[in-house]
């Protein structure tokens, strides 16, 4: 008997109430000679696992098994179910911590570069770019690692790297050491890839959009907490030094980030996952069984059996990559030159910009809560187009009321807040829907590597546009926004032209 843990989002099921319908026993191809039984001798009935699994009164010691004609067995205990639910929760929590680590430096990084290290403000863009370069290079590698080995291994390695990178950030003595630190932290940030791949594997197609929304919510909440800690670490009362090691508004974000990474290491101790290849080999359930059990069983027990047997939806994948690139470009420009822009236009300081980032994050969180209601009314692809239009509206409000190539000219408060509103909402909800739709398009393919490429497209955007924004800001504060607008419009047009390809994978796509 070979035991394999089957991931199941039981915790999220109870928390989000994602699925209320009871699961009917699936029809199974008789030629496969499957026998479904409950290991409890008093309840030995065909198909019992499917009905008993969702009965909240079943015994914690009960083991559910699936035997095939080769006598291979998959044992599913309630303890394993709970462990998988905990793993899903921990995955989302690690996403939260990673984004706290990212956003905590945003309000103070321009001052760190220009005042503490005496470097040009154009290096602000490079600091964001090298961070994304590290993520871009590591994302495919982490995706392959996750597919071939273990998600837990990738989490562990990335958190160790994150600790080292943030300590180096706090000890930076010139611009080059700071850039090196941000590059290392960027490598660690690629743990987004195994996190997204694991959540895709551990949820059913009907659950996936909402689970991805929860993961995006964790991203936003982390983005909220980061600037909040920056408000505290910028207090002069917390400034001191131990020898040459300084603790001040510029270095505290690095120390706090390293501490959060240590917390992340502790959190992955109870993390458990199933062996994907074993599940794909042992389970060869027919399409009829998949259709019957689609609403409550996870991908790992069903569609993994079809991996490698369907054609890659190239057009749909390209459209998603373009969306990731253009969405990230818009938000990256805001996070890169936003503090510089508000300082020049409205005389804001680090404290005020921290409050602005908190406000943006709260807005995104509310938008993600409302997204759940929209998911019941509209398809993923329609919502994706809606949020792409939202970003276009926001960027247009920055470009429309001023000449983008006029140095020293800035928009007024109303235009700025309109831009912040539409771009923030479009980015938060758009990325949540995009991740879900992308995983559905690749339902019958290995998604660790492909989600890695999706992350890479966003990272490429974070490499290119921060540099553009940093160098063009003094020539015209809205030049970068104008370029982002062009990219988003082109992506929107391409998506409209390939709308039929932006649909979840179907069994008709089989070879």
How far apart are the termini? 33 Å
What is the approximate shape?
globular
Low-confidence spans: 1-30, 32-76, 275-308
| Portion of residues within helices | 55-70%
Largest β sheet strand count, sense and barrel closure: 3 strands, antiparallel
Strand content: under 5%
Using only CA atoms, what is the Rg? Answer: 24 Å
Compressed to H and E, one letter per element, the order equals HEHEEHHHHHHHEEHHHHHHHHH
Structural class: mainly alpha
Describe the structure.
The chain is mainly alpha-helical and 511 residues long. Helices cover 65% and strands 4% of the residues. It is built from 18 helices and five strands. It has a three-stranded antiparallel beta sheet with strand order 1-2-3. A two-stranded antiparallel sheet has the order 4-5. Helix 6 (151-170) runs antiparallel to helix 10. The longest helix is centred in the middle third of the chain and has 33 residues, at 314-346. It is globular, with a radius of gyration of 24 Å.
Layout of strands and helices, then pairs:
Blueprint: H1 10-16, E1 35-38, H2 48-53, E2 63-67, E3 73-77, H3 78-103, H4 109-116, H5 123-148, H6 151-170, H7 175-188, H8 192-201, H9 205-233, E4 240-242, E5 245-247, H10 252-267, H11 276-282, H12 287-293, H13 314-346, H14 350-375, H15 380-400, H16 413-441, H17 447-472, H18 479-497
Antiparallel strand pairs: 1-2, 2-3, 4-5
Helix pairs in contact: 3-8, 3-9, 3-10, 5-6, 5-7, 5-8, 5-17, 6-7, 6-10, 8-17, 9-14, 9-16, 13-16, 13-17, 13-18, 14-16, 15-16, 15-18, 17-18
Summarize the structure.
By secondary structure, this protein is mainly alpha-helical. It has helices at residues 10-16, 48-53, 78-103, 109-116, 123-148, 151-170, 175-188, 192-201, 205-233, 252-267, 276-282, 287-293, 314-346, 350-375, 380-400, 413-441, 447-472, 479-497; strands spanning 35-38, 63-67, 73-77, 240-242, 245-247. Helix 13 (314-346) runs parallel beside helix 17 (447-472).
